[in-house]
Amino acid sequence: MANQPIYIDPALTNVANAWVNSQESFIADKLFPVVPVSKPTFKVPEYGKENLELIENTTRTGLSKAKSVSYTRKYKDGKPLAEHALSGEVTKDDYELSDDPFTPESDTTEFILERMALVDEKNLADYVTNLSNVPGTALAGASRWSNPSADPLNDIRVALAHFPFRKPNTISLSQDSFLQLVSHPSVLDKFKWAVGGAVGLDQLKQLLGGFGITNVLIGQARANLAAEGLTEDINEIWGSDVLLAYVTPKPSRKEINGGYKFTLENGRKVRKTQIFDPEYTKIVVEDYYNYELLLPEAFYTFKNAFADYE
Known about the structure:
24% of the residues lie in helices and 26% in strands. The protein has helices at residues 10-18, 28-31, 92-96, 102-128, 152-159, 175-182, 185-188, 201-208, and strands at 7-8, 34-37, 43-47, 73-77, 82-91, 136-138, 170-174, 215-219, 222-224, 234-236, 242-245, 259-264, 269-275, 280-293, 299-303.
């Protein structure tokens, strides 16, 4: 028997479009907010730095003309959206173990989307913690924040000077890095007379709020980071790096931000086909999007901020 032709499944497409990566462990789409676009090719703004130029004076006398200032906003081609796709299978056993045949298909669709999100998380983490792509500093030896004599709060204060457009409102780090930061002597010292000396997420937000940092993103996603065929190395994707960022609360193509995830409107679809010999249903999820860095100066990375947590 020939395989049935591949077709778009409306019900599973609805499942895919309703799926939101709400897992706290994933933070890529919080650093690079989603902005829909109507076509795979589009324009994005480039902002000048005229707002940083200091005018000598604004005094006008008599009939003299007012000094002129201009704000340059250029447009460049955004990176064309790429097609992303993964497939999964629903076997006869999967159907037989479920009262509703739609359930294993929707479960497989959501599983595929989670796997795609894991790939995106790793790719974005690698990109924004690479000092070739964004400003930052590599910590080593006694300067690493895992060292009791280091001063992470002062390092953060100094890093604020590297944000010419918008000061950072977000810090992102792995779960292990978070645990080491809230256990650091310089942080514990700030709360030694309160809450029994313990420091958690709320206390860290309170402390960093003095720098204008109100969002603490803890990337808890884990993956096997070993090359195929080698002994597995399951570890946190965000590793030992710490990222400061400005993330706009109002994402749009006209809003200054470090980067966006541009997605094609109605671009996410699910295709399904029945395969015989052996018999199973093949589910393919496809989507069109790109993560694009627009303003490197909206980020600052502390590379290798911590030693491995023990």
